[in-house]
Design a protein that fits this description.
alpha+beta, 11-stranded mixed β-sheet
Length: 337
């Protein structure tokens, strides 16, 4: 699974530009039936050894955060807007790669031109630009057009049990689902690889409507703040302690019964799991649970430091635990009341 995560993270695809990731996934699902909906979601129907009482859906999103070019200035630098939630400090001084391979550096007004108060605060993204090495607007326009998107450049690096890369959110989730598809499932299952999660959980709106599940499992990456400056609940979740299970976030209030059941399943199968200790963020569950007449939904998240940056860090052991937990929870949901 590690090699597949590496391959998926190396692909580039912001929200609305998930084509390469979708093509990769299609090439790795064997003979399973699939369809692509109007938004670009990939919906895969996998036959199990038997058919359960309920339709169970698992989903993860294919898109990653990035930027979109909005304007080319006379000096050849490119103004941009963020695609998804990126802190300005995660952009400054970083390199990005556009769809056509053009590389640029994210810059800002030089420090010696800043006023005293500007030197004390992080610059806003509105004040930044991308330097693609063009000497003027005409030269830049031969390389980049407004509407072109770019993602962080990042080398996939192993650090013991930990992995460092861009786009772990949510290519690790994609890899977990691919493993489930290829190793086989006990019951018929629908797998949705969604688009446009980072810009408002949009793809999940349509894929869930098509899949029409009774139960859903969202596999995601979530913020881990297990660093020296964070204490108690502010750590959110901890690398190496297993899957982070959400009780509530900014898009979903999860069923307390299902929340407890996930931990019961984890304990019964010696799978490591931990509560997500802050109400923050959101994921595709926000759209999934509201589809049609409602869907019973849980979110299983991989703890990830420095999320939405070129240097996301996760623990391979947590990814393995999340795979095992997703498998067992999906088997339970297949015949749950």
């Amino acid at each position: 699974m590690k090699e597949q995560i590496k391959e998926l993270c190396s692909l580039n695809g912001t929200s609305g530009r998930e084509d390469k990731i979708r093509e990769y996934i299609i090439s790795h699902i064997g003979e399973n039936e699939y369809k692509i909906d109007a938004l670009g979601n990939l919906i895969v129907y996998v036959k199990g050894k038997r058919k359960g009482k309920n339709t169970v859906m698992l989903c993860s999103h294919m898109d990653e955060v990035g930027v979109i070019a909005t304007y080319i200035r006379p000096d050849g630098t490119v103004k941009f807007y963020t695609v998804g939630g990126i802190q300005s400090v995660s952009l400054l001084g970083k390199t990005v790669r556009f769809e056509n391979g053009v590389i640029g550096a994210v810059g800002v007004k030089p420090v010696h031109l800043c006023k005293a108060e500007e030197r004390e605060t992080a610059p806003d993204t509105d004040d930044m630009y991308i330097d693609i090495g063009a000497k003027n607007k005409e030269e830049a326009e031969r390389l980049i057009s407004p509407g072109d998107t770019a993602v962080f450049t990042s080398d996939f690096t192993e650090m013991g049990d930990k992995l460092l890369s861009k786009a772990i959110d949510d290519r690790a989730g994609n890899a977990i689902m691919l493993r489930m598809i290829n190793e086989g499932v006990e019951y018929d299952t629908v797998f949705c690889f969604n688009v446009q999660e980072e810009v408002g959980l949009r793809g999940a709106m349509t894929s869930t409507y098509e899949a029409a599940p009774n139960y859903a499992i969202v596999i995601e990456a979530t913020t881990a703040a297990d660093v020296i400056d964070a204490e108690n609940e502010k750590r959110v979740c901890v690398l190496g302690e297993g899957t982070a299970v959400s009780l509530m976030d900014r898009a979903t209030v999860y069923s307390p019964e299902l929340y407890k059941k996930v931990f019961e399943i984890a304990k019964a199968n010696s799978i490591k799991a931990q509560p997500k200790t802050m109400v923050a963020g959101g994921n595709d569950a926000g759209s999934v649970h509201q589809s049609r007449a409602g869907v019973k939904t849980v979110a299983l998240s991989i703890p990830c430091r420095y999320i939405h940056s070129p240097s996301c860090v996760c623990d391979m052991r947590d990814i393995e635990e999340t795979y095992k937990l997703a498998l067992k929870v999906s088997e339970y949901f297949a015949n749950a009341n």
